[in-house]
Each structure stands twice: as structure tokens, then as C-alpha cells.
């Protein structure tokens, strides 16, 4: 799925957690073998601490979550992000920071 010419950090595939729905049962953290999630002591919630450990194309944790609090990008979002990266690469400019989906970093709680 990822374009071999694009570094993993530029490929916007990682889960986001809807904290309005999440029941903090930590199933995602215990389920994923790639250490994408960590437990945040201050809030008692899971966070997406290592988004680029996520395996492109995998959506297993979203399938596992019983309250459907985890979201992975849509095909359209991935295509748009890749178009931006390629355009910036052609223009000789570097993408600024981490590519964001929905305007927030993966570990930031949704409003
Ligand atoms: S999509 Fe797969 S690899 Fe990524 S965090 Fe979920 S279970 Fe782990």
C-alpha cells in the first residue's frame, strides 16, 4: 500500500481515537502487537503514541474495538495526502511537520 518512494513518516496511515466514544478499556493497547498505543497515566486513556509503528493497510484494532472508537484514514484521505507529498517533493519543498488528518495529531483527543 505505501509508495516505496515515500518515507513511512510521510505516509499518513495510523489510528485516531474518538475520546467521545472511547471507554478506556485499553483493548487496542493490549491487542496491537506493534506498540502503537500507550496508556496515559494522567487521563487513564490509551493514546496513539507511536503512529508510524502502525502497519499500512492494517485496521485490526478498529475492527476489534467494541465501541468503534478507532478510526483509520479513508482511501480518499490517503490519496490526497500522497498527492500533497508528491507535489511538495516535485516543488522542492518539504511537507511541514507531520501530515495531519482531520487537523490534529493522532494522539490529540478529538473535540
Ligand atoms: S491498525 Fe493494526 S498495526 Fe495499526 S495500530 Fe491498529 S492493530 Fe496496530
Textual characterization of the structure:
This protein is an alpha+beta fold and 111 residues long. The protein has a domain at 19-90: 2-Layer Sandwich (Alpha-Beta Plaits). It contains 3 helices and 4 strands, in the order βαββαβα. The strands form 2 sheets. It has a two-stranded antiparallel sheet with strand order 1-4. Strands 2-3 form a two-stranded antiparallel ribbon. A hairpin with a 4-residue loop joins strand 2 (37-40) and strand 3. The radius of gyration is 14 Å and the shape is elongated. The model is unreliable at 96-111 (pLDDT under 50). The protein binds iron/sulfur cluster. Iron/sulfur cluster is lined by residues 15, 32, 34, 36, 54-55, 58-61. Residues 15, 32, 34, 36, 54-55, 58-61 line the site of iron/sulfur cluster (SF4).
Please give a quick description of this structure:
This protein has 111 residues and is an alpha+beta fold. Helix content is 23%, strand content 11%. The radius of gyration is 14 Å and the shape is elongated.
Amino acid at each position: 500500500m505505501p509508495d516505496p518512494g515515500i518515507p513511512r513518516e510521510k505516509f499518513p496511515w495510523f489510528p485516531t481515537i474518538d475520546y467521545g466514544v472511547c471507554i478506556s478499556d485499553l483493548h487496542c493497547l493490549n491487542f496491537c502487537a506493534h506498540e502503537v498505543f500507550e496508556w496515559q497515566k494522567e487521563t487513564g486513556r490509551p493514546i496513539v503514541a507511536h503512529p508510524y509503528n502502525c502497519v499500512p493497510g492494517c485496521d485490526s484494532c478498529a475492527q476489534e474495538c467494541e465501541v468503534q472508537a478507532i478510526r483509520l484514514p479513508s482511501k480518499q484521505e490517503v490519496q490526497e495526502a500522497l498527492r500533497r507529498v508528491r507535489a511538495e517533493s516535485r516543488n522542492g519543498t518539504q511537507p511541514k511537520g507531520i501530515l495531519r488528518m482531520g487537523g490534529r495529531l493522532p494522539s490529540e483527543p478529538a473535540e
